[in-house]
Write a structure and sequence with these properties.
The structure is a single chain. The protein has 1 helix and 3 strands. A hairpin with a 4-residue loop joins strand 2 and strand 3. It is elongated, with a radius of gyration of 11 Å. A 3-stranded antiparallel sheet has the order 1-2-3. By secondary structure, it is an alpha+beta fold. Helices cover 16% and strands 45% of the residues. The two termini are 21 Å apart. The protein has one domain. It comes from marine metagenome. This is Mandelate racemase/muconate lactonizing enzyme N-terminal domain-containing protein.
Length: 44
């Protein structure tokens, strides 16, 4: 299984990420850099 894509989901207070794999599995996560979530979303 390999990661095929990572997409940021930016809300007012949080940066979430959705991770896609070549096996069709989709996972969700949360960024831990609280003060700069908009900057991190651009880098993703």
């Amino acid at each position: 299984m390999k990661i095929t894509d990572i997409k940021p989901i930016l809300t007012d207070r949080y940066l979430l990420v959705r991770v896609y794999t070549d096996a069709g599995i989709i996972g969700n996560g949360e960024s831990g850099l609280w003060a700069h979530h908009r900057s991190v979303a651009v880098l993703i």
